[in-house]
Design a protein that fits this description.
The protein is built from 15 helices and twelve strands. By secondary structure, it is an alpha/beta fold. Helix 4 runs parallel beside helix 5 and helix 8 runs parallel beside helix 13. The two termini are 18 Å apart.
Length: 346
């Protein structure tokens, strides 16, 4: 079997890293040949609108040319989150290649309005309809994509449990968060609770990895930049992980990657009871699902005051991550489904 991956970004993008790049060693161990083409590489001109668009167009054109070069030599064309033009999808089908479309977030929803994104709905529908298999993250996404294709495979995460491992911390308890700067808005929802916690337990430390400092006011002093090279070391400093979310159509379609990172690191977590968070978190066993500011504060103080409980929940979370959400669980499942679509036509 030969697979050609088209990823929306490089390894610094979490979805591309976990849903394409990190699969490759496991697939290669099965004797599967893999090649990756990156659609959108980071550009130094990204924040200069006109030049950034020209640089992006150049990247995309280069990706199309590489796809045309490699496409004849693959059995399966695995599209990770890229919404290709209809003519390109038709070209792939004419070449007789099996297509797999993979996505994690609710890319059919506008993040800011939390309503269906009319600009992306048609290319999303085209990609789903054209594919022999659709791989996605959660039940909300499965329900939406299932309107256009019945061949759905849900794989949550996965998480590299060899890279993310428990490390143990010393000193004052640290409450932490990790994410993209654009998702700092969810962390901001907790600032009132965290301020109250700081008054009740002034010895508590805070660490926010990847958060935008100005958006956090006084708590901005605890934010640090994210990088792929330092994220595991920074996560190892956290004793309690946070994943606050709003509850809307966009967030119900989100993946739970930061929760999986906490779990693999053996960190008990507190998460808003929204869609994927409910599936990943066993309330009271691997973490908590507080549904009000009072519940957040109560659960935080409970964990701060009980090191044995933190260890127990962290161990349970790590065990759950390895058993259900690691690449050792996901890779055989993906392989089996890829073999199936090669044997049977839709």
């Amino acid at each position: 079997m030969k697979i050609l991956f088209l990823t929306v970004g490089d390894e610094t993008m979490a979805s591309s890293r976990t849903r394409a790049f990190q699969y490759i060693p496991h697939l290669v161990n099965y004797g599967i040949s893999c090649r990756i083409v990156v659609y959108d590489r980071p550009s130094p001109w990204r924040w200069k609108p006109l030049i950034g668009k020209l640089a992006g167009a150049k990247n995309h054109l280069a990706a199309y040319l590489r796809l045309l070069l490699f496409l004849p030599f693959c059995d399966i064309f695995f599209i990770q989150k890229v919404l290709l033009p209809a003519f390109f999808l038709n070209l792939i089908r004419l070449c007789g290649k099996k297509m797999v479309f993979d996505f994690d977030d609710a890319i059919y929803i506008d993040e800011f309005s939390a309503e269906t994104d009319r600009r992306q709905l048609r290319p999303f529908e085209n990609a789903v309809r054209a594919s022999s298999l659709v791989v996605l993250e959660n039940d909300a996404a499965a329900a939406f994509a299932g309107r256009f294709n019945n061949n759905i495979l849900k794989i949550t995460g996965p998480i590299d449990t060899d890279r993310y491992r428990p490390a143990g911390t010393t000193g004052p308890v640290c409450v932490g968060w990790i994410g993209h700067p654009a998702t700092t808005c969810y962390l901001k929802r907790l600032l009132g609770v965290l301020d109250e916690l700081r008054k009740l337990r002034p010895e508590t430390k805070f660490l926010f990895i990847g958060a935008t400092s100005p958006d956090l006011g006084d708590f901005g002093q605890y934010s640090v930049n994210w990088s792929l090279e330092t994220e595991v070391e920074l996560l190892s400093k956290i004793d309690i992980g946070l994943m606050p979310l709003a509850d809307n159509e966009w967030t119900r379609g989100k993946g739970g990657y930061k929760l999986l990172q906490y779990m693999a690191m053996g960190i008990p977590s507190l998460a808003s009871p929204v869609e994927i968070n409910r599936e990943l978190t066993e309330d009271g066993r691997t973490g908590f699902l507080p549904d009000s500011p009072d519940a957040w504060l109560k659960n935080l103080t409970t964990l701060l005051d009980n090191p044995d409980l933190r260890r127990e929940l962290g161990k349970n979370a790590r065990d759950r991550a390895v058993k259900k959400y690691s690449f050792y669980a996901a890779a055989p499942l993906l392989k089996k489904n890829l073999e199936t679509i090669l044997k049977f036509s839709r």
